[in-house]
Amino acid sequence: MVVHTIDSTSGRCSYLLRGIGKNKKISQFHPLALLDIVSSFSPKSSLGFIKEYVPCASLDSLRSNLHKSSMALFISEVLYRSVCEQSSDERLFNWLCTAIETLENCDETLNFQLWFLVGLCTVMGFGPSYEGVFDGSEMFQPESLSLVTQLSTLSFEEAMKIKLTGSRRNDFCEQIIHYLSFHLGVNLNIRSLDVLHELYL
Hints:
By secondary structure, the chain is α+β, with helices and mostly antiparallel strands. It is 46% helix and 13% strand.
């Protein structure tokens, strides 16, 4: 089993997990799991090896709640396709840990994917400028730019209460993903977005 991670010191890393079904619990490696690991690397392989691991947080609702587990799958896919650098980015790592804990503890997830995508753009350096707009704002519909401002300035609780239709929410996600694709120079084909659209119609 290969585990893809974002590490606090090394950035994007991939590890080979040995002994699945023997002395390791595969359930600990769910989407967005927060783990403290001991690893090793071999010059003969591009993959590291996880030797020991301890969960940093139980994240029970991310595994048991259908909406949160689907959200975790979506976020994991976004990160897998957008974070490629194998270098430390402490700001991104700390923000992701906070976002994951926020998802675990929040009661309302209706607009979480919108809040997350705008925050990810910001922490990756593609966020709103001092004028309150994105660099490349011509990619967005006017109402989407207004929503970007709200998601960037409102508290998390207020952002979750913004009234949107399922179609409006999905369109906004597609625009942000297209925006990220443009700045990263890759095509972020996020398949799990369709699952969220079905859940949050």
